[in-house]
Structures are given as structure tokens and as C-alpha cells.
Fold this protein.
Amino acid sequence: MTWVRSIMERYRALFRKGKLDAEMDEELRFHLEQETEKNLKGGMTPEEAHRQAMVAFGGVDRFKEQTREERGARPLEDLIRDLRVGTRTLFKVPLVVVVTVASLALGIATSATVFAVANGFLFSDPGPVRDPGTLVVVHTSEDRGRLYGETSFLDYQDLTEWTETLDGLAAHRVGVLSLGDPTERDRLIVELVTGNFFDVLGISPAPGRGFLPEETVPGRAERVIVLSHRSWMERFGGDTGVLGQVLQLDGNPFTVIGVAPEGLKARFFQMDVEGWVPLGIPGGTYRATPARMANRRERQFILLGRLARGRTLEEAQAEFSLLAGRLREEHGEIWEDGNDRPRVITVLSESEARIPPDGRIALLGTAGFLLACAFLVLLLACSNVASLLLARAHRRSREMAIRTSLGAGRGHLVRMLLTESLLLAMAGGGLGLYLTHFATGFLKVLPLPIDVPLRFDFSLDGRVVLFTLLLSLGASILAGIGPALQGSKPNLTPALKGDTGRNDRRGWRISLRTLLVAGQVATATFLIVGAGLAMRSLQASSSFDVGLDATGVAIMWKEPPEEGLEADDLREYYLGLAETLTGRPEVETVALARVAEAHPLMDDFATARVRPAEGEPSRIRFNAVTPGYMEMLDIQVARGRTLLPTDGPGGTLVAVVNQPFVDRFLPGTQGLGQRFTVTGWWDAESPETREPASYEVVGVVGPRNTAPGEAEAPFFWTSFLQEPPVRGILHVRGRGNAESLVPVLRREIPVPANEFTLIDPSPYVDLINYRFLGHRITSRALAFAGAFALFLAFIGVYGIVSFAVSQRFREMAIRQAMGARREQVMGSVIWGGLRTTAVGLILGLAIVVPLAFLARSALLGVAPLDPAAVGGGLAVLVLAAVLAGAIPARRLLAAEPMEVLRDE
Amino acid sequence: MPKSRSELLQGTLELLILKVLSLEPMHGWGISERIQLLSEEVFLVNQGSLYPALQRMKRKGWITSEWRVTENNRRARYYALTSAGNRQLGEERDAWARSSTAVDKILQAAF
């Protein structure tokens, strides 16, 4: 039972320290008395007897330390004491603490924010869903072969009936409904789901209930809604009285039947929606109209399935590959992907489907890059902290010397100093988490070029908190270990004599601190110049040639009031909209086009398969536009003419093409007067049922300036008046700027709230800029990183110069007393700071310049040594270094030389 | 205080304490006096290092302690050997015997 006793001993040692210490004192007293008595008997005087007893014992305090050490609870006891002492000492130097904690918080928050966003996309918590591991997502391949597409409702019904590997398969898609009066444009973003949706997820709404079978029969489904928990709280104050209430959605009554469990999100559990509505209501909801749901080409549903017990993902994949073959046999061309290849079905696990494999590398790459930058910022913060701690360790060398001579071991001192940096890092981590909370809240609503607020979940879940904690721990060790090792071996004799400051008499000795600051400036140079380059390239990209000049133009997309209009009626409808606007005094010209060519989300909205004279046909983009469109957007023809009002119905089909089109499809000609044939049309990846047609080239647009490394793609324009009008996007140029046109468009062409449009009235340029959204987010993140880096580097340089000044107070005072002019003293101090900075600058440039050359293609036409970015960055850094030197130098000059000397 | 001596004592000190306590329970000062006698003043026991050693041995479970009253009516902490301590004494004694024999042999070979 030795171990029991041993544990009891330790337990006693930890919690009954006071009693143990008292016992130790008594034992010690007894021993000394006995010894003294013995000495007295030996004939010594009482004083001598006591002194000899003490000598024989060999140092009372040392004995106490060692005895405590042997009690065995030492590590814990020490930790508690170190924490107490650490907190106490830190409170004595609030400025150092504030600066350090702020530095760390910035560094930690930067990393944690990047992590939280990536975490939100990749691992968002599926919430209350049962056993998310057996959920799978079923994808039908898209046109042109992309694997991870959506599925039509009829295919969904067949697959549900046929599958044996899945225990349930639900279809869903996101939809937008108006709440209350449609003109108020109060929108409800919901998920439209099949009746078994909640069953497949394994959740039951409460309060209230989920859908009953009879409420969800396609074609007879009832108008009911299950509210999301958030919507219930925010719109209805969490009142259970809402159950059974009727909401006017899209002008129809929907009964509230339940509330989904808190935390359930839509679309791979990432998106915040307000409720769930059954698919198949008579007349349909949103885009899930009966006509669309009965069309096998309308692939608009995400399928979420539950693996049957004992079945694996591989078995499901094997089965669905077979089912895809069966669908191809039954439906032929519909189940081909536009390149005469059969469509395929891919089954992914739910967690994998969130970011499909084809998008994952790009996302992880960007996240990794940003995280690396954030880590650099944290590294800067750590070196600041290390630098501050070093300075403190230096000032405390006397304290350390005393502790050492009292018998504290080196390990003990290191631990004590590390505890202090741990406290700092934890405080920094806490504050950092708070900042992260802000930053992610800010990022939650992604700035997308559509008017529906997509809300994502970047909440600070356990993973983010753990990440932050580990980061703080790592930071505390990184920042603390150097100073702790250096601080724990004081040079006893001079340190005890109070001679803390003058061991580097030879001015700016290369010390750990100098190296730290040089490294810091190097990192800052890297980040600032990088940020400068990124911002310059952002600037360049906004004036980037997208093939048209959209300045002063506003656009909007209005859906037709009803579906299934005849071609002529539809064309009349859009021409009528244009007519309405033409009469307005604010409006100069109006044009219609099938697609907004430069809009980032419309790249695949109009494509055509063109057959060249020889070789394979290929699919390229085109647009159908009204006369005046090309003039409005300054798309200039180099040869021939633009489209005219005379290019109307019944006339010869005509087209304007660009130079790459001529090079590709009409080689060896000037293009003008040539003919070409289109053998297939697609709109948003859905093939159109249309006969092949032949066009005559009437104009050729000259080549445009493309970004380096990008080739201009073939493109052609046909007449809106001659084409089946799939849609008409209004392009308006006004007498003022584009912004002033937005209210005009809103007023003249009201859009009911239940109509979701991809393009709300907006300045065209703003929308085009979303092309560079990823670029812009990266640039902005870099700009933040650069600003933080500058701030931290400033603190770093300031710290070291200020420290050096304090070291040289005496020397400077003597110099001044000997008649040195103030400017000389000041200059010498600032020069010292600049020398350190210069080393860092050169080091930083040596890293950033080659990297910039490597990343040239990502810089969108900005030279790797762009003078504004590189020069500006360097200037800012040098300025910061001068400032960081000037402030302590002024402090030095403010001191009276004689007083400094006397004080020493 | 010279470091070498305390290191020299480290192993033997515990053996000596065990030896002393195997005779009868004893308080700290008594132990140091007894050791002084037993080792015939060869080892100069630094009394200060005695208590940490006692604490260490107590943690290892070789000895126990209790407060008792001495012959002159003083309260003192008495240390006593446990059965584990007894075993340990045996082991230490053997180990000591082995190493001292080894030292003897080396010395014989050298001279």
C-alpha cells in the first residue's frame, strides 16, 4: 500500500501547505534547540552555541526550499504560486502588458478569423441532425462534364423508387418567398423540401411537428411551413402561439405547423434560412412550379440521402452508377451531357459535398495562403512579446540573481518566466477570440452580387476555440522560451550590485533582441510590400478590360410576369419595358441583351456550338442584343457594321463576331460576308430546343487588351430582334452617373418580392467588380495583415530603440554634459534604430522580390517591382523606424544630464 | 557549500538513516547525532540536507513520522521504519556491500 500513502502524502502536501510548513518550522526549531543545548554543554557562550548550531545546519531558508521540493507536490504548488506571482508582477507594468496583450490579440485574431471562416465552410456543425456520418449527397453531372450538379425532380422520383442502398432520399432547394404584402419586399429565404426531408435528417420539429404525408403529396401538398428556430425567435419572439397561425407567403396562406430544432441550417448545413416548405404545392412555390418539376431537363434539386443500415458509400456509388445507366437508356439524349457522353451520378458523403472536390483545392489554397500570412502576423506579435520580455528579464536580472542565490534552480526560474508569458498569451488569446467574434460577424454576410442576404455560420465553435487556445499556448512558448532561458542565468555579481544596464557599453551589440527586431522588420517588409502589391493589382483590376466600357451604365433583370409566354409575346414584353424607360428624362439610351456579358455569374448563360469549316465544333459564348447596345458599351467594330434596327424578324440572320472568332472558325478570311452555322444552343447549361441556324458576319470587333496570360475567347453577337428572346436584360445609360439610375429603374419597373432576380437594378461596374471578389477578399485580408504588421513592427522598433536609449542614458548624459549638441545625440539614437531596421528591410526584400516574380500571374498586370507598392511600403517602414527612434530620443533629451548622472 | 560532498552523501545518507531507524524510531536531531557516531565522524553530515532526505524517504514510503514527546518533555517528530523501509535497507545494504567490495577489489589490483 505504499502508493496509497505516497498519494496521500502528495495530497497533504498540496492542500495542507500551511500546516506542513508550520510542522516544518517546529521540527527545525526543535533541532536547533537540541544542537544549541549540545553546544552549551560543550562550554560555548549562548550566542556562539546558537550560531554554531545554525552553521552546522547550513542555511535555514535553503533547507526550507529543499524540504518543500522533496514533498512531491512541488510542480503544482509552484504553478499556482508562479501564476500568483506572475499576475502580481504583470500588474506592476500595465503598459508592457497592454502592448503585449494587444499585439498577441491582433496576431491571434488574424489567424483565428481565417481559421473560423475556413472552418465554417468545411466543417460547419450539422446541428441537431442524427448521425451525419451516414448522410450522402447524390449529384448528377452537368453539361460539359462537371460532376457535382443538381438533379431533376422526375429523376429524383425514379431514383427514390429504385435505390436499395439508401434508406431515404430527400430533394431540396433554396427558394425566396415574399412575406405579407408583396410590394413591401419583405423576403423569406426558405428551403423547399420533399415531405421526407426531416425524416431523412432524423429530426422532429418542436414545438409543433413536421410534415404529415398528406401535406406533401406532389400536386396536392398543403401550404404549411416549419419555421427555423432563428426566425421563430426573431420574427415571433419565440411565442408558441405562432403554431397554427397563417402567414401570407407569395400572397397565399401558409399555416405554421412547427419550429425546427435550433441550429438546423439549410444547404449542407451552412446557410441560415427562415423555414422549410413542402415541394409540390398546387401552382408551385418559387421556381418549383409544376411545369418545372415535370421537366426532366430542369435539374435544380440537391438530393440528400441516408445510407441504409450496413451499406457503405462505395455500395451506394456502385448502385447509382447503374441507375444512371438505366436513366440514360430510358431517356436518351436528356441523359447526355451535351458532348454526347452519358451523364453520371456521383455519391459523396455529406461532409465531402460541402466543398465539392473540384473547388476544394482552390479554397484550401486560398485559405492556406491567408493562414500563412496570418501566422506571419502572429510571429511578429510573438517577437514583440519576446522582445518586451527580454527587456524585462534584463531589468529583473537583480531579482533573478537574488532568487538564484536563495536556492531557486534554473528550471524553476525558466518556469516562472514562462508562466508570465503564458499569462500574457492567454490574455491575448482571450482578447483575440473576442476580436475574432467581431471579425467573423462582419464576414458572415458575404458581399455577393445578388440582393439575397446569404448568411453563413462562422461561429466560434469548439474547433475554433481549441485552435485559438493552441495558438496562444504556442505563442507563449515561442515568445517566452528565449527570454526565459536568457533571463534565468543572471551574471550574479554585477547583477546583485545593481549594475543592470551597462554590460553592453559598446553601443549596439548584436543581441537576441536586435536579431528579433531585424527579423520582425523583415517579416513586416514582406507583408507590407505584399499588401501593397495586392492593393495595386486590385486597383489595376478595376480598370481591367472586360471587353466593354460599363461606366455610367446600370442594368437590371426582370423576369416575365408569367411563365411559358410565346416567343413574340416575350419579346414584346421586354421591348415594352425598354420603351417605358426610354421616355424618362433621366435616361439617355436603353438597350436589351440576353446576357449581361461581363456579369460574373452569367458566363454560361448563353452558349452556342459553332462548327468551323474544318475540325471539331466547339461551344462558345454569344449574346443577342438590340441595336444601340454595342454603341452604349463602346464595343467597337474594326470592320463592317454593328447591328441595326433593320436586322429584324424575317431578314437574313446576321452576326457581329470578334477577331478570335474569325481566327478560330473562319481562318484565312477577313470574316466579313462569311457564313457560319450554329448546331446547338444552351442557356444556363440547359440545352434549348432549336433548329441549327446559319449566320452572316456583318461586322468584326477588334481584339481587346487582355490580362497577361489570358487569351481572348471567340464571341459573337446576334440581333435580339431575330432571336427567340430567352430573357432581356435592361441596359440603361443616363445623363448622370449609374447610381442615379438605380432609383429610376426601381420606380419604373417594380419587382414583386416573390420574384427573385439575379440582377437587381445596379451600376454595371459594381457587378463587374465581383469578378474580382476572391482577389479582392485576398487583397483586403493582405491589407489588414500589412497594417497589423506595420503596427507590430513599429512597436518592435520602438521597443528596441527605447531599450537601447535606457541603456545609454548615462553615456548620452555624459556626452551632453561634455557639450554634444542635442541634434547629435538625437541623430545617434535614431541612427541606431535605423541600422537595425535596414538589416530587416534588406532581408525582407530579399524574400519578397523573388516571391513577387513567382506570383506575377496573380498580380493581374502589376509589375513585381511596382514602384508605388515597393517604394511606398519601404517609405512607410522607414518612417515608422524614424518615429520609433525619435520618441525615446526626445525622452532622453528631456532628462537633465546632471540628474541622470547623479541618479546613477 | 561544496557540491561534491553532498553528492557523495546522497546515496549513503539514505542508507545511514535507514540503518539508524532500524534500531529504534528517532527524531531528526537524534538521527544526525547517531549518524555522526556510527560513521565515526567520517561523514560530516550537513544537518540541513537531512530533512529533505527524510521528506523524500517518507514520500517513497520507507519511513513514517509522528509527533511524540521526548524524555525531556519536548514535542518532536519521530521517524520510524516501515516494512518497505526494512526491505529497502536490506537492498541498500546489499548494494552497498557489492559496490564497496568492488572498490576494494579495484584498490587491491591497483596497488
Summary: Chain B touches chain A at residues 1, 27-29, 32-33, 46-49, 51-53, 55-56, 58-61, 67, 74-77, 82, 84 (CB under 8 Å). The mean pLDDT of chain B is 74. Residues 66 and 78 of chain B are 5 Å apart (CA to CA).
